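User: Assemble these into one structure.

Assistant: Restating your components, then the assembled model:
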Amino acid sequence: MKYEGFILGLTNGVACIAACAPVLMPYLMGEGKGIARNYWLTGQFLAGRLIGYLVLACATWTISRSILQAAGPRNIIIGVAYIIFSVLLIIYGFFRKEEKNCPAAGAKRPYQRLLASWPALLPVAAGLATGLSFCPPMLLAMAGAAEQPNLAMSLLFFFSFFLGTSLLFVLAPLVGVFKRFSVLQIIGKLAAGLMGLYYLYSGIIMLVGGLKL
Amino acid sequence: MIAKDTKGIAPPHQQAGILKTLLLCLPMLMVTALMLSAGKLPTEPVRLFAFVLTFVFINAVFFMMISTGQTDRWRAILFVTYAAAFVLSFITNLIAERGSMSISESNMIEGLTPFCHIVIPMTIIPAALTKTIIFPGTIFGTKTAIASMFVLWIGSSLALGRGFCSWACFFGGMDDGFSRLFKKARIRSVDSRWTYLPYAVLLLVVLASAITLDPFYCEWLCPYKTVTEYPEINSVKTAIQAVIFVSLFLALVVIIPALTKKRIQCSLFCPMGVVQSWTNKINVFDVRVDPARCINCKKCIAVCPSFAISEETITAGKTKITCMKCGKCIDACAKKAIFFHIKGTPLNAENAEVYRRLFLYPAFIFLATMAGGSLQDAIMKIINLITTGSMI
């Protein structure tokens, strides 16, 4: 196994966590869980990122001149991903009320049912959307993956890149030490909602740019 | 839910005699004369007229504060006038210097953007990490330079804590003014969850600014861009930014404050307000409640513009950390159960007027000093308008 991907990821880990922290930290604060549970949630978030990376690895390798190198389709794909993710984040931040124990509290709305049925949906979507950011380290990784002799090596390159970038995420779940401060849950959810608004704007701008409207 | 409207009886205020009032006003007369003139009386007639008018106005307000025993009623007159004068003065100066309210990229590169205190929380982490202040302004040289604003902020925070927001901030008078537009609140309750929104905004702008190395709040969220300066609109991005600024200004500074009679921008959005709330911890002045005197009329809860009083805090004998020390609750209390207090001194409501006066001196000096320059400048601009047909 070659180590370039891992080293590339390791050296750019700070940039990666910097890009993901504004989404991940408010989410973890908003959930208000303990450290152990936060590791599980961070794992789901990282799983989303890994899915995004592996999709990119396949796309990069199978198409030597990847469609993702063309600005239009790239912007449309990422724009749509951002918009879907931002809507989830906005619902989470501003509209998702605490679950009530009272059975007479009324039927849940569709998005509440969706998030209740698929609790991992939000962290995975968050990981996927933030993982699809075409930052300079990612472009370097894509260039590295494109040079691999076969698809398996390309996937391995991206996987090792993922491992390198993920090391710093070990610290994120430690925010769980503040779980007793219920106020932080409210603040975390509101901050996640605000960040959702920013991603919604970013998604719309990318989509508009991609469609050349 | 908070902020239920209640009716109360007219509060009695401890009124001072004319001689005592004059004696108590004497130090303020001397200090304001010195601060407004910078040690030298203006010789130009227009400037002299502006100086005299400002001096008289400011000291008349202080005289009324001492004479009537009321704080917020008179503070608000000066504070709101100050905000209006600041906007008038700032905009006309921008147009005189640049020909427009908008700031171009070349202006930013040259470091010509005036620094404002709201940027301070955003600059701290990047400054610690990169030893760079992420703001397109100058560090020294002008009164709106970064260093000047830091010094001013540190000084006022030490002296007033979050009182800064009611006695020094040049933006605060805007939503304070609009919150007084109607006699009664049209929206009488606000979900208490929203009082945590400023913390979320602070978390967002600190993280986003540290990552992007841009002043995120200024770029995307500042409502006051509408009445100060804004980026030149030359792209979709800057057009969207302008729409956001105007929408936030109308919603947070004009419409919702008018409907709720609360300072919504200051209490529910401003990230600087959060930082100022923490400085209340190190400031010597606070506002306390004597539960024994309290008749539970809840008038203080209803009138507090910053959601800083609740039934729980009254029982605990204090206000929340978000108290802006405007004095509105103190003016409204019929039983004088709520009062300014100096930390470390006995909790004696009988000494309330002494505590109030001791608070008023530093607070009013800040307000007078901050407002003085803008007021004089605005008066001169208005005289220019009358005599020449142009403010510039």
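The first helix of chain B runs from residue 18 to 37.
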